[in-house]
Amino acid sequence: MNGRHSATAAPPADRGTPNAVEAVGLTKRFGRHEALREVDFAVPAGSVYGLIGPNGAGKTTTMRILLDIIRPTSGRTSVAGEDSRTGGPDLRRRIGYLPGELTLQGRISGRRLLAHYAAVSGTVPRGRIEELAERLRLDLDRPVRKLSKGNKQKLGLIQAFMHDPEVLILDEPTSGLDPLIQREFLAMVRQVRDEGRTVLLSSHVISEIQEAADAVVILRDGTVVEVAGVEALRRSAVRRVRLQVQAVDGVVLEAGLADAGLTAVVLHPHDGVVDVDAEAGGPVRPLLRALANLPVDDLVLEEPDLQDAVLRLYGPQDDAGTGTADKRPDERPDGSVAAPSAAATTGASASDARIAPDRDRQEAGR
Ligand SMILES: Nc1ncnc2c1ncn2[C@@H]1O[C@H](COP(=O)(O)OP(=O)(O)OP(=O)(O)O)[C@@H](O)[C@H]1O
Hints:
Bound molecules: adenosine-5'-triphosphate
Number of helices: 13
Strand order of the largest sheet: 6-7-8-3-9-10
CATH class of the largest domain: Alpha Beta
Number of domains: 2
Distance between the termini: 46 Å
């Protein structure tokens, strides 16, 4: 996972699609601090990409370079096929930008402020501002300085969307929005994509990325640790597996669970059955095939969670290149101990762990 553009999954890009956003060898130093180091990624036109990563990873810096608000130390970026450094006001008008720290002051109303922005950003279709304000439930006649944080954010979103830009670059767009408005915003993003336009958005809300984005670029400490399709990344996450197995010889059970590729196995034998809590990575089919060899009475496979996959990549890397979040502590919240072998987990030797299957099965009425 250390390399850039790791192969967890190819992003769902059509190879023939031009890129709406590109960063090539992007490095940015602030004094001695290196905020970005050799960052490469591309966002194909007509897609929604999430730019995610822990605090200080370099998301805002990347977006500000894309907008030519700050200049890179080395490397280059382009938006809508134009170099960020040379695109000038013409390129700016083709982009909708929401800055991360929006500071809006003044006695003027939201309506007048947006009219001012519209004069700068180019043609805004008639009625468009009112339509967006209605969708986001914003009163355009209130003075800007009296607006709450969330309502100021709505103004910022309207100015980013109102001129139907080819590319939207949105830095934490749902920050401060209530859940209903967040939902409306995600619908607006999907609509932009359906129209063949492009969105790059940063967010700390992984569920929102899962809902809105086709792919993610994950930054950590100024470098790209992953570019992956959202669905493929989600499927790469470890799932929780819960089984109930009829009591069989402990060694047989252990071998069966190992064959199924289960890890972090915790066993709870009771009443002639064994409840198994474990984790499984990778595709489901080999797991099911291996489990078919055990007397399984019940099986729950939890949905893999994008958040788990992402958090793994947020943590510092170990020597093997996997995030430390992969390493589960031995101690579990319920006080039971995850052990490498079933016998050790039951607190017995392999021979002690054996359970008389026939008698127990009869007692369990199975
Ligand atoms: N103008 C600046 N001067 C000095 N250092 C800066 C400046 N802007 C950003 N940095 C540093 O660059 C690094 C990346 O910051 P950036 O704001 O891009 O991170 P981020 O991923 O957007 O973080 P967050 O999720 O907290 O918003 C941080 O270490 C930050 O302190």
